[in-house]
Amino acid sequence: MSKSNTLLHGALDALILRTLAWEPRHGYAIARWLEAETSQALRIEEGSLYPALYRLEERGWVEAEWGVSELGRQAKFYRLTPEGREQLVKRTEEWETFAAAVSRVLLGPPRPAGALG
Amino acid sequence: VSGPGPGGRAATALGRGKDRLRRILGVGVQEEVESELGFHLQMRIRDLEAAGMSPAAAREQATSEFGDYQAIEAECMNIAKRRNRSVRRAEWLAELRQDVRFGFRQLARSPGFALLTVLMLALGIGASTAIFSIVNGVLLRPLPFPQPDRLVAVYQVDVEGTQGQFSHPNFVDLKERSGSFAALAEYASSFVPVLVGETAVRVPVARVSSDFFPALGVRAAVGRTFLPEEFGTGEPVVVVSDAFWRQHLAASRDLAAMTVRVGDQPLTVVGVLPPGIRFPGSAELWGPQGRTADETRTGHNWQVVGRLRAGVSPQAASRELREIGRALKARYGDDTMMMGAAAVPLHEVIVGGVRPMLLVLVGGAGVLLLITCANVVNLLLSRTAARQRELAVRRALGAGRARLVRQFVGESLVLTLAGGVMGAALAFVGMRALLALEPGRLPRVGEVRVDTAALLFALGVSVVAAAAIGLIVALRASDGSVWGALAEESRGSSGGAASHRMRSALAVGQVALTLVLLVGAGLLTRSFVRLMAVDPGYRTTDAVVMDVVIPWATSEEEKARSMRLHGELLARLAEIPGVTAAGSVNILPLGNEGTGSSGSFVRVDRSETVRDFDELTRLMREPGRAGDAVYRVASGGYFPAMGIPLVRGRLFDDRDTPQTPHAAVISRSLAEREWPGQDPVGKWIQYGGMDGDLRPFVIVGVVGDVREKSLDAEPEPAFYANVRQRPAGVFGPQNIILQGGDPQAVSAVARGIVREVNPGVPVRFRTLEGVFSASLSERRFSLLLMGVFAVTALVLAVTGIYGIISYLVAQRTREIGIRLALGAPVGAVRGMVLRSGVLLAAAGVALGLVSALAATRLLSGLLFGIGTRDPLTFVAVPLLLLGVAALASYVPARRTTRVDPIIVMRAE
């Protein structure tokens, strides 16, 4: 995933927030959940999840705490903050608008080029 | 995949604390990132292995899915570090806010203490801020010209190495030959009468050459400066200062419509300079240099200012000037007195004279500030002693030492900032008072103000003082074990030995610093007293000085008119009831107006006539012929009006008319130097170089010596020409001295007379005593300030000693009680207390004497008649300090006698 690709960047942030919407998870769990939910359609390098998580934490949208994983190992759990929850709502709305617009263009009937002139 | 279980939650609570600790310590970021990423990879490998992969293949797959591990780790660490920093900052600020609030609460509990401390700090900070403002305005801030470090004053250097004014031909040659300057200009300052409405005022004016404004880098704010064709022709144009423009010309931009009446001549205003430009001195008007063709190489009428070329240092310029001066001397020989020339930074020329005084005052204010801080530390420590139990409890409850230190710093910050605010206000008021005490001798005084720099200075001083005070107090207060403090408290002896040692050390330091200030003030006082005992050579009392400006004259008719004006004024002023003598002189002793003129004369025989200046120059070269003196032009009444005694012969009188031989009066030291063992009366001299008049003088009388330049400089040999015979000396500023009568009444009558005789003559009245006193203003100023600093320091030091001894007595009440009960005489117990106070002071005095011996060297330039190690001062000041310390300890010592042994011993 390229850093300059802000569209996907934003999408990844939104997906992570969504992943944490019900319960706190550690990074590995987020990666597995994303993989399962997107049916592997979103091919991202799993490592890039972590800078994204750190950035979200820096902005105060998620909180991190060290805890014990299901297998009894030390793991860092991320939890959505109220601010993060608001962001999730906002991002989802933005995505809806965006996706609808792109869909309209891509899936709508083609117009002759001359019509623009 | 599921979230953390109940056990996990408990662990997170602990983990959160650990996170915070890590953040505060600023370590473990790398470990944190490594273990998080490592956990991910291990989990993935485990899952893949569980799905049936071989360990090697699983590792391969997990790593490739993950991406560039190194880059990701680095990015995460950067973000984490950044986050930690901002979190730490936020936490620090929040805690500081808490500490400051805590400080406020603490102080609110003892408002009297807080007020006392704040007042003391305000005094220390205020004094140093006021002095800083003055030093900043006068010494530190660059001159108000572009690239001011390239401006230099250029002096002609004579055979004795004295730096003086230039003669015009020498200036022209120098300018032509020198390559060091981007611009080089000459100027001469004087006063002119300017008619404003109905009244005439005296206005400082400068005649400047064409390069003057380019050299300074000054352009007119309104209009223009002079055009090349306006020089050398006597063109009636003038440039005015911003202040003059606003005050007298209503700040009108329509310059063409405005004229300034100088004497009888209307001058056209062509330009207004930007605000704050008043060079040279306090000039208000600038005129173009007139005709210079007739000027000689021996008439030193011009001062020179230059702008160095980029990259040329004043030293390099001086080296070049010295060479040029030598070459000119070789070419013109005895026609010029110039042996060389020197360039001195203009800033140095303007402020160099007051630097030693101001630096001494800075030192004094700094020492006072230190003493104040020491006193505040002492006060805080004594209060901390009382709070020992509270502190111990807080530490037992887990408050870290660092946190306690911060609380003390917070508390002292509240105190010093309050002190700083009050101090800045005090500085604002105090500086005005200070400058009011300093009647105009301080250069650049108009540029002095309490500005942002001064306020920043006050703030900086407050913060540094807060940090220093808070740290010292905190380190003392949080020292020692918790249990020790709790136990000590229960025994009723608060403070502890370490704290007491600290306070004693502070008191010793205070006494030492106070001694330094007192010695400084003592030396200045002794100098002043010595100086006041010096005879200036004239009577400073009971005379009014009336400053007039006689219009400059060019035509014979104008000259005659000005002479008549001067004569009529003197005659009528002498008749004012109460006035016993009236006389005039062109330059008043100790008047600080211009350097005055001096020059060379030649002894001649009565029959000898000097036809022209070539012949005069030839005579000067003959060995044993020439001499030099301070040259003054006076009327016969000048000497009785000033109380200058006649030693031999007679003064100028009615026998001396323009037609009779020109009479001269000389000072005793000139007579003794030039005619040792002979009667100078009846001797002839030729002094034509001063005013271009080659008629010889005959000496008719000898008068006492007068200190002309300053009271602390030996009198220079002086020569007086008769104003009735030498009209050249009458034009321009004249000082008329009126002896006797009530100054107010005499001034009022005199003003009326001038108005009747010629309303175009500006007058200003001073008393001779005022002029004399003003010549000492710089000394009085530094003496007064040092005195105030020293007395304040003394009061603070005494409070310090008093506080410690009272505390000591309070602490040893039980011991004292026992001693008294066992039959110790009251006197012995008192002596014991007294001794500890005097011992403290003695230690301080010893330390202070050593410091003072080193510090007073700074004063050497300001002393008169005594050395920097004046024995009287160095004996009297320590005695005074010891005496005052004994007194301060005596009060608490007396209290011991009121101790009732029985009550004391039952008390515990």
Task: Describe the protein.
The complex is a heterodimer of chains A (117) and B (908). In chain A, a hairpin with a 5-residue loop joins strand 2 and strand 3. Chain A has helices at residues 6-19, 27-37, 49-59, 82-107; strands spanning 25-26, 62-68, 74-80. Chain A is α+β, with helices and mostly antiparallel strands and 117 residues long. Chain A is 53% helix and 14% strand. Chain B is an alpha+beta fold and 908 residues long. Helix content of chain B is 54%, strand content 15%. Chain B is built from 27 helices and 22 strands. Chain B has a six-stranded mixed β-barrel. The model of chain B is unreliable at 1-15 and 485-495 (pLDDT under 50). The interface between A and B is medium-sized, with 32 and 36 residues.
Any key phrases for this structure?
heterodimer, A: 117 residues, alpha+beta, three-stranded antiparallel beta sheet, 3 strands, 14% strand, B: 908 residues, six-stranded mixed beta barrel, six-stranded mixed barrel, 27 helices, 22 strands, 54% helix, disordered N terminus
Report the principal-axis shape of chain A: elongated
Q: Low-confidence parts of chain B, pLDDT < 50 over ≥5 residues?
A: 1-15, 485-495
Side-by-side strand order of the widest sheet of chain B:
3-4-9-6-8-7
Radius of gyration of chain A: 18 Å
Overall pLDDT of chain A? 80
- Mean pLDDT of chain B, to the nearest integer, reads 83
User: What's the alpha carbon Rg of chain B, rounded to whole Å?
Assistant: 39 Å
Helix and strand string of chain A, N-terminal first? HEHHEEH
Which SSEs are present, and which pair or pack?
The complex is a heterodimer of chains A (117) and B (908).
Chain A: H1 6-19, E1 25-26, H2 27-37, H3 49-59, E2 62-68, E3 74-80, H4 82-107
Antiparallel strand pairs in A: 1-3, 2-3
Chain B: H1 6-25, H2 29-50, H3 55-66, H4 69-109, H5 111-140, E1 151-157, E2 163-164, H6 168-177, E3 181-196, E4 199-208, H7 212-216, E5 222-223, E6 237-240, H8 242-248, E7 259-262, E8 265-272, E9 285-288, E10 303-308, H9 314-332, E11 340-345, H10 346-351, H11 355-386, H12 388-396, H13 401-437, H14 452-477, H15 482-491, H16 497-532, E12 543-550, H17 556-574, E13 581-585, E14 597-604, H18 613-621, E15 626-634, H19 638-642, E16 646-649, E17 662-667, H20 668-674, E18 684-686, E19 697-703, E20 718-722, E21 732-739, H21 743-757, E22 763-767, H22 768-774, H23 777-811, H24 813-821, H25 826-855, H26 871-895, H27 901-906
Parallel strand pairs in B: 4-9, 6-8, 15-20, 17-19
Antiparallel strand pairs in B: 1-2, 1-10, 1-11, 3-4, 3-7, 3-10, 5-8, 6-9, 7-8, 12-21, 12-22, 13-21, 14-15, 14-18, 16-19, 17-20, 18-19
Helix pairs in contact in B: 2-3, 2-4, 4-13, 5-11, 5-13, 5-14, 6-9, 11-14, 11-16, 11-23, 12-15, 13-14, 16-23, 16-25, 16-26, 17-21, 23-25, 23-26, 25-26
